[in-house]
Amino acid sequence: MSYRLHIGPNIRKSPYFDATVRDGVATFSVYNHMFIPGNFGDPEAEYDRLLNGVAMWDVAAQRQVELHGPDAGALAQYLTPRNLDATKVGQGRYVPICDHDGHLINDPVLQKLSEDRYWLSIADSDLLLWAKAIAHERGLNVTVREPDVSPLAIQGPKAEDVTAALLGDWVRDLKYFWFREVMLDDMPLLVARSGWSKQGGFELYLRDARFGTALWDRVKEAGAPFGIGPGAPNDIERLESGLISYGADMRHQTHPVTPFEMGFGKMLDLNGPHEFVGKPALRALRESGQTRRRTGLVLDGAPVAGNEHPLPLFHEGKEVGFAAEIAFSKRLSKNIGVGLVAVDLPTGTTGLSVALAEGPRTVTLADLPFA
Ligand code: THG
Fewer Cβ within 10 Å of end Cβ, the chain: N or C? Predict the structure, then answer.
């Protein structure tokens, strides 16, 4: 389903907005109060480029929350149950963020730029307000703000060749989730090997919005020999790969989940000496035991149109969880999805049901990733 959105000054525009419009963006969504491209008119070609070639995405809506000052490291550690002791300057880390009830409120990538400067590259919830309030209320000596930083992703098997053509062969030695700060002409960038797909690639964090179109065009030019084309974070690929989508898979207002339920249990350090938001709640949740788990879903029948919000899953007349997102995978030629179900229902369990707009479907539980 798609609707027309009313466009007004209340929704922010990415520095790449003009370039994406010029290059044929067909749909937008809204993420962190900013437009983010949905597709460029040919979703199948865009999926194919991501899996077999290379795609460029305007992901400026992955906004940064900057922690700067003597207590930046202390605040970063207080915000996440993941232990950051071993995190080095130049290294990124996927960090679950919980509220005081132990519910996930964001799942950003943390970048450690220096001992006194960190960025949280956030998912779609207002972490800036949260981090500012916590810093202030705890009397920490740190400035929390949204810097002028806008990521552009290059994803797909040919992303390394494109990024090397643009920036040099050193990018080939960059390790997964590590980054380097560089200049491209006059453009200040942070370049990381990361991105919201399992096809490999890089994210260029542009540190001056005035160069949005210039950077977009440099990437396009460097990628042309490799068949680069515009695209956007791809829901079908992410379902196949099992990547987590805050907003779809969980949202603290509507379908709160714990990090244990999302499979983050091993990332948490609940026994260490350091304090962090949610520690007592998470320790209590660990004791009381997990009731739901993240799972893949397979739906029978004809290709589905997809769902607009989480849908309850039923088994033997009982509600046992929810389907977070469902889509038809042409590559796997089946309807796939992700969701949460009761822990006593193992992979392979069949006969669950979900009520789609187009009618009821039978659901079988599957392992993640699908492929
Ligand atoms: N890149 C950057 N910022 C982001 C995202 C991103 N902000 C929004 C959103 N994505 C945050 N959420 C995620 C979710 C998954 C991953 C990264 C950010 C991810 N996960 C890998 C996985 O699950 O296999 C690796 C996780 C790990 O290291 O353990 O990459 O994509 N800049």
Answer: N
